[in-house]
Amino acid sequence: MPPKILIIGSGIAGLCTAIKAAKLAPGAEISIVNKSTPDEGATRYAQGGIAAVWSSRDSFDDHKTDTLRAGAGLCNNHAVETCVREGPLRVQELIDLGVKFTRSEGRNTYDLHREGGHSRRRILHADDLTGLEIERALLKEAGAMAGIKILDHHIAIDLITEGKLFRRRSLPGRCLGAYLLDINASRVVTSAADITILATGGAGKIYLYTSNPDVSTGDGIAMAYRAGARIANMEFIQFHPTCLFHPAARNYLVSEALRGEGAELTTLDGEKFMTRHHPMGSLAPRDIVARAIDREIKRTGDKHVLLDCRPIGAAELRSKFPNIYENCLRHGIDITTAPIPVVPAAHYTCGGVLVDENARTTIDGLYAVGETACSGLHGANRLASNSLLEAVVYAHRAASHATGAGRNPPSGDAHELPSKLPDWQSGQAVQLEEQIDIAASWLEIRTLMWNYAGIIRSNRRLERARRRLEILHDEIFADYWNFLPTRDLIELRNILTVAGLIIQSAMLRRESRGLHYSIDYPETDDVHFKHDTVL
Ligand SMILES: Cc1cc2nc3c(=O)[nH]c(=O)nc-3n(C[C@H](O)[C@H](O)[C@H](O)COP(=O)(O)OP(=O)(O)OC[C@H]3O[C@@H](n4cnc5c(N)ncnc54)[C@H](O)[C@@H]3O)c2cc1C
């Protein structure tokens, strides 16, 4: 029997897995669900590009070395080797599917960018809208394939496992699908599946300031954790140093290239504070700049710092940065005459659902791909443009393994689904009438994570965050089952769970490494902590 596959998420990871699975297992019934519109996710906002060894001047060894250096001792060597070696094949498949990467002028090859941390030019890009182009091509392909069904505005609430079904709390057993809320119809549907694949993206929305879209609430990580899967390295959250600070501008990244051209970071009274933090001033590495801005904001009590682009010159600004110029102008900031208010913002979740080399989680029948997974590629810090790469490589591996291509299925996989899974039980739950409590709890979690579990951590701040989350946990869970599920309520439970995982992991790592920095343990401690944090 061809398998029934449920894929939760329609970003690069979910779509690539679906397309590959449909090719490898004709006849398979593949459903892709997303909780918004099909193209809404981090993928469409990716600007820089996808990293892969593409030129004769580059080598697998160089890409590996750069990735390992960024990962600060925690990368899984096998995952790095796999992604680097298989990357060019998977990128070629994207091209074959119709992704139009920017070509090098006058040469029969692609234009390769070089980004921070890369020793060679190896970033394929579609101008500065790479993710949008990839998402466009993948949605077109998936939409045209028989066997793939895409369901919008369906949010997965919880995974269904044998353990939950038969109340065997200590063992999750096999994953049998998920309960989904059809958001428009306010109805919970049961989606039974032989294989369930989490492709739900990252968790940036847990923080007050983020470059991530609204869908990035860590749902896959929270659902997997509740189901009993292992979760790894949640303390490693990458912060982008400069996001536009403006009440009407959600999630707008201000490119680091501006600093490369001469823009300076200053406090509100004009001090070029970066020279106090690093000899390279405003050109210091990303994590150092993010930390310095955080320190200044906490020291001064101001809400943001400024990025002064005027040293670049008006003509250069307009010609080299037309999108940033236009976007800021729309928010009333003329960057040729005034500095841009900026804050650092949560950008990428390095940890996630722990997976093996075939994207299998620790629960049978459950896979995780893309930003929601922790494959070991990024270790303690992600190298720029390696995330789209990880998504395509592990999508291929998940699809190949799940459909049984090129292997003998292990005996446990020959599993029959129970003839009918029980429907969702609402009990006495009623419609939620007031949104005020939910909105207040959302804001409280995001603010406390920003203030106490953000870029610079300390024992005191983490403990404070832990205690407040505990109170919120009691309040939210007292109410949760009394109300019929809504997207806001489901996401609130998930951000609460994932915030707790971040704090727990950060408290366990009593050292500073990669993206995790603690005032109380400023040194790296290889003797005790050169390992993943697995919950
Ligand atoms: C501004 C920005 C710029 C970036 N630039 C780059 C770059 O240049 N290069 C690079 O390599 N990486 C970049 N990244 C990171 C990269 O874009 C992401 O890591 C990657 O796109 C994640 O893909 P994904 O498929 O895992 O998740 P996403 O693209 O985020 O998709 C998640 C999907 O899951 C769905 N979903 C979530 N929860 C549920 C639920 N409960 N039920 C149903 N559906 C659900 C969403 O609706 C969505 O369809 C950037 C990220 C951002 C935010």
Describe the fold and architecture:
With 535 residues, the protein is of the alpha/beta class. The protein folds into three domains: 4-235 and 350-413, FAD/NAD(P)-binding domain; 242-344, Succinate dehydrogenase/fumarate reductase flavoprotein, catalytic domain (Flavocytochrome C3, Chain A, domain 1); 436-529, Fumarate reductase/succinate dehydrogenase flavoprotein-like, C-terminal domain (Methane Monooxygenase Hydroxylase, Chain G, domain 1, Up-down Bundle), CATH 1.20.58.100. The chain contains 15 helices and 18 strands. It has helices spanning 12-24, 60-70, 77-97, 130-144, 162-165, 219-227, 257-260, 286-300, 314-320, 322-330, 386-402, 436-452, 459-480, 487-508, 526-529, and strands at 4-8, 29-33, 50-51, 112-113, 123-124, 148-151, 154-161, 175-182, 187-192, 195-198, 231-232, 237-244, 264-266, 305-308, 340-349, 352-354, 366-368, 373-374. The strands form five sheets. A five-stranded parallel beta sheet has the order 6-2-1-10-17. It has a four-stranded antiparallel beta sheet with strand order 12-15-14-13, with helices on one face. The chain has a three-stranded antiparallel beta sheet with strand order 3-5-4. α2 (60-70) crosses α3 (77-97). The two termini are 36 Å apart. Mean pLDDT is 92; it is low at 406-414.
